[in-house]
Structures are given as C-alpha cells and as structure tokens.
C-alpha cells in the first residue's frame, strides 16, 4: 500500500459544518471525476469531520439508485467498509436547474445538516462556527448561468462561506467568455468563484514553480540567452470515441490549448511571484499572458485524423456524432512568443492532437547549442517535465561514452517518480483541487483577468479559421501528425537528436509503465 502524504494542519477540517452540493450529479463528469475524487479524499482522511455531500440533478432517483449511479468502475476495488461509510454521507435531491423554489428546498436540506453539525461542534467545544457551502457545477455549460442564478436566489447564505466551482469550457471566445464572467461576477464575488482547470492539480504542473524558483542553477539560465525554444506537448492515443458531437463544437485549440496548455506555459514561464498567495501567483500568470500577442495564422498547422492504416480505428468524420464535412481540427501545432525581457525571441511551440502515436503530456525546454568546436555534432541539452501518463523529470546532457574512446553521447539525469517516490500515493488532480476548494485556497484556480488575457491570445486565430473555413491536413490514426509536422517544428529552431531514446523506467515502454501504474492504483 502506498504511503499517503498528509497535512498535519489541514485547513479543510477546521469548519464547524461543510456541505458539498454536486449539481449535475447524474451526469458522466460527476460519476467519472467528482465523486471518485471525493471518495479518494474521504478514504485517505482528508475530508472534514462534519460533512455532507448532496447530489442535485433533474433525474428522479431514490437514495439507493443514486448510490448505484455514482459508484463507477473506479470504485470496484475500493474497501467495502470505506465505501459504505462514504455513501452514508451522500444523499440526493431532485430539482430543476432554473427553479428558485427547487433550490429553496435544497437550501432547507443544507440548513438541516448545518443545524446538526453546529450543535455537534458546540458539544465538542469548537470555537470555530464557520459554515462552508461548496456548489460544484458538473453540468453542461449551457446551464451554467441559470444554475448560478438559482444558487444565488435559493441556496446562497450571506453568513456562510459560499464557494462556486465551475468546469471549463469558459466560453468559446473572448466575447462569450466576458459575457459569461459578467453574469457570474454580478452574482458572486471573485473570491467565491473557483474556475477549475484540472491540469493545475497535476503533480508535475504544481512542481514546476519549485523547479523554477527552488533551484538557483535553473533560474540562472532560464532566459533567452540560454534557451532556444520551449515545446509543450499534449498527445492523446485515442480519438473522440463517440464524443465527436461535443468536440466538434470546440476543436482541439479550445479543448486543450487555450486552457490546459496555457496553464502549463504560465507556471513554466511566469516571473517570480511576490509570494505564494493565491492573488500573487495568479497576478504573475496574468502578467505573463498580457505579454503574448495574438497567434498568427502563419504560425499554425492544423490536422484532422483519418482511419488507421489497418482500418481498425475509424477516422474523425466516421464518428456518427460528427457533422458531415466537418473542418474541426483534431491536431494543432502553433507558436507563441512572449514579448518580455526574459523570453524575447524564444518560440513557445504548442503541439496537441488526438489519435496520435502515443499518450504524452510534457514541457520540453531545449537549450542552445554549445558555443565551441571541441566536440562536433553535440546534441542540445534539454530539460523535460513529463506530466503524464507517469510523472518524471529528466535532463538530457552529453556524456563521454565509457571505454577507450573519447566520444560524447546523449545520456540523462532521470527523476522518474515511479521509482523515486514508489512509496508515495500521488493523488488525482481533482482530489488535490477539491481539497484546495475546501481549504479556501484559490492558488490553482483561474482568475477572471487571467482567463480574459488567455482568450485575447487565441480569439483572433479561432475566428480566422472559422471565417476562412480553413481545411485541416489529414493524418492517420496512431501517427505522429499531418505531413509537414516535423518540418514545422524545425522551422522554429527545434532540433531532434535521432540517436537518443529515453530509457523510461529501466527501458520499458511508457505505455507499458502507464498500464501497470493504473492497475496498481486501482488495486491500492
């Protein structure tokens, strides 16, 4: 059993009463992400002592049907005693999303639990009488605003700590995002809104500021004098899998680039914040985004996957949920530039795609060529932070090949978490972020001005692609991308050293390591 890292002073446990309302509790997001994350926190002792979890949705269900609904595949290896204890604190309330009276009934349910919890806290002689209400919106974006209005009118309490968690997408462009933000900030204060991007809860993404600002040798060379280019990669080895109807409305740029990949860029490239407070960290990220001009079409390559060569995997437009003749991009490479003193002239290459040759999410910092002629054809040094499927940091450097020759070859300093921290349970991203919601920590959530700045970078290119009906280039399922993808990277200075292959986890393929890692986590 893996060791669980604990917080001896867990602020989530300090409130006298905590009620979490999962709105849209009958949907897939709640089943696959929200409730498994809540159970993970419960199982490892991170949830508050006085807690109730209420599922709210339009479907009519009794308590038993609700429990069966939320108990997904992720629960199948869970200890049955722990699962029963968890389900005992979960209940269900049915109601419409746009009904103030239905949310009024929800409020009565919340107040009943709060009354009991406050009495219990008083018996325990707890001085803290805080009441925390978390409203997690696991609903389609089309009902975000009606739900927010219903919460404010029917279930909000000015004397309690109200926290509203919102899932992406946050609009489709700058105008819709601003309209969306206007509606929410009219109803709730900014410090009550938690715009969740689960990649900010990933272990390696949270580690990047420590790498940057906790190691003097990295900070000294973290600038355009030493760095040639940065590549942020988000590759998925599967297609839309029947979700083409949803994906087609957004495409790969909106789906992962404007949010997940931008957030990885922010934590990698931002200036040192004044402190680790939520406002200072998010201000540093917003300041960086304001230095990035809008992406130009000449710096973009789009692709759309076709069927696999053997015909076993269908193409994107073969999905019956995808509109006929769709031009939605399932692959994109694009280059951003940061116009500040540190990053002037350094290409930031973003590459994302579905149905690729492997699953991989990473940030790769490639340094400039060694400025001497002692050793010809030296590979460039690179620092790679592997976000998934397994966590790792490795530094590629040139090393003398052992033996009676004076020949350099590429090797690596390898920090694979699977080996170095084999006794530590790394929580899922949603677990980490939900704990921060309960603690009232917004450091890893997106602030309104930060969201605005990100949309300003991408909105012009999104509108141009749609206006000019640009056709993406085809690429085969399970390939490295469309024709010209490698040349596109090379155009911006990226050099691939063909003789090097990172021996991930003692030489075993990453896919094999990831499969074993998932199986082990399910067993744990």
UniProtKB/TrEMBL annotation:
<comment type="function">
    <text>Catalyzes the rate-limiting step of the oxidative pentose-phosphate pathway, which represents a route for the dissimilation of carbohydrates besides glycolysis.</text>
</comment>
<keyword id="KW-0560">Oxidoreductase</keyword>
<dbReference type="GO" id="GO:0004345">
    <property type="term" value="F:glucose-6-phosphate dehydrogenase activity"/>
</dbReference>
<feature type="domain" description="Glucose-6-phosphate dehydrogenase NAD-binding">
    <location>
        <begin position="21"/>
        <end position="207"/>
    </location>
</feature>
<keyword id="KW-0119">Carbohydrate metabolism</keyword>
<comment type="similarity">
    <text>Belongs to the glucose-6-phosphate dehydrogenase family.</text>
</comment>
<dbReference type="GO" id="GO:0009051">
    <property type="term" value="P:pentose-phosphate shunt, oxidative branch"/>
</dbReference>
<keyword id="KW-0521">NADP</keyword>
<dbReference type="GO" id="GO:0005829">
    <property type="term" value="C:cytosol"/>
</dbReference>
<dbReference type="InterPro" id="IPR019796">
    <property type="entry name" value="G6P_DH_AS"/>
</dbReference>
<dbReference type="InterPro" id="IPR022675">
    <property type="entry name" value="G6P_DH_C"/>
</dbReference>
<dbReference type="GO" id="GO:0006006">
    <property type="term" value="P:glucose metabolic process"/>
</dbReference>
<dbReference type="Pfam" id="PF02781">
    <property type="entry name" value="G6PD_C"/>
</dbReference>
<feature type="domain" description="Glucose-6-phosphate dehydrogenase C-terminal">
    <location>
        <begin position="210"/>
        <end position="495"/>
    </location>
</feature>
<dbReference type="InterPro" id="IPR001282">
    <property type="entry name" value="G6P_DH"/>
</dbReference>
<comment type="pathway">
    <text>Carbohydrate degradation; pentose phosphate pathway; D-ribulose 5-phosphate from D-glucose 6-phosphate (oxidative stage): step 1/3.</text>
</comment>
<dbReference type="GO" id="GO:0050661">
    <property type="term" value="F:NADP binding"/>
</dbReference>
<protein>
    <recommendedName>
        <fullName>Glucose-6-phosphate 1-dehydrogenase</fullName>
        <ecNumber>1.1.1.49</ecNumber>
    </recommendedName>
</protein>
<dbReference type="InterPro" id="IPR022674">
    <property type="entry name" value="G6P_DH_NAD-bd"/>
</dbReference>
<dbReference type="Pfam" id="PF00479">
    <property type="entry name" value="G6PD_N"/>
</dbReference>
<dbReference type="InterPro" id="IPR036291">
    <property type="entry name" value="NAD(P)-bd_dom_sf"/>
</dbReference>
<keyword id="KW-0313">Glucose metabolism</keyword>
């Amino acid at each position: 059993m893996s060791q669980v890292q604990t917080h001896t002073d867990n602020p989530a446990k300090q409130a006298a009463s905590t009620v979490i309302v999962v709105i849209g509790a009958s949907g897939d997001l709640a089943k696959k992400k929200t409730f498994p994350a809540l159970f993970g926190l419960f199982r490892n002792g991170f949830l508050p002592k006085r807690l109730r979890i209420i599922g709210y949705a339009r479907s009519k269900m009794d308590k038993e049907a609700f429990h069966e609904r939320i108990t997904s595949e992720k629960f199948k290896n869970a200890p049955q005693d722990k699962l029963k204890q968890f389900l005992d604190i979960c209940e269900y309330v049915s109601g419409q999303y746009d009904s103030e009276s239905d949310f009024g009934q929800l409020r009565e349910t919340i107040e009943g639990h709060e009354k009991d919890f406050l009495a219990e806290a008083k018996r325990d002689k707890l001085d803290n009488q805080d009441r925390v209400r978390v409203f997690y919106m696991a609903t389609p974006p089309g009902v975000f605003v009606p739900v927010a209005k219903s919460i404010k009118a029917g279930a909000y309490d000015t004397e309690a700590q109200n926290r509203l968690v919102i899932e992406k997408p946050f609009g489709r462009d700058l105008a819709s995002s601003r309209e969306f933000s206007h509606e929410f900030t009219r109803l709730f204060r900014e410090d009550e809104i938690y715009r969740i991007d689960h990649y900010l809860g990933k272990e390696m993404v949270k580690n990047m500021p420590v790498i940057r600002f906790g190691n003097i040798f990295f900070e000294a060379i973290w600038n355009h004098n030493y760095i040639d280019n940065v590549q942020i990669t988000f590759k998925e080895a599967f297609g839309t899998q029947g979700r083409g109807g949803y994906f087609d409305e957004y495409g790969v740029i909106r789906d992962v680039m404007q949010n997940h990949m931008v957030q990885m860029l922010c934590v990698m490239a931002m200036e040192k914040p004044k402190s680790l407070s939520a406002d200072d960290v998010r201000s540093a990220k917003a300041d960086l985004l304001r230095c990035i001009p809008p992406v130009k079409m000449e710096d973009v390559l789009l692709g759309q996957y076709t069927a696999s060569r053997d015909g076993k995997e269908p193409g994107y437009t073969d999905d019956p949920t995808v509109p006929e003749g769709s031009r939605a991009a399932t692959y994109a490479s694009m280059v951003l530039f940061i116009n500040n003193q540190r990053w002037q002239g350094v290409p930031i290459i973003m590459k994302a795609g579905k149905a690729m040759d492997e699953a991989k999410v990473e940030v790769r910092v490639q340094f400039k060529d060694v400025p001497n002629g002692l050793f010809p054809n030296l590979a460039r040094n690179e620092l790679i932070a592997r976000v998934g499927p397994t966590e790792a940091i490795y530094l590629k450097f040139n090393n003398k090949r052992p033996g009676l020759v004076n020949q350099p070859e590429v090797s690596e300093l390898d920090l694979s978490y699977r080996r170095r921290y084999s006794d530590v349970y790394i929580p899922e991203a949603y677990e980490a972020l939900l704990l921060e919601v309960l603690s009232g920590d917004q450091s890893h959530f997106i602030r309104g001005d930060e969201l605005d700045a990100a949309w300003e970078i991408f909105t012009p290119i999104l509108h141009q692609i749609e206006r000019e009906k640009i056709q993406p280039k085809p690429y085969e399922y399970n390939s490295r991308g469309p024709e010209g993808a490698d040349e596109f990277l090379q155009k911006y200075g990226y050099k691939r050293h063909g003789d090097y292959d990172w021996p991930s986890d003692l030489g075993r393929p990453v896919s094999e390591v990831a499969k074993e890692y998932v199986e082990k986590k399910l067993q744990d």
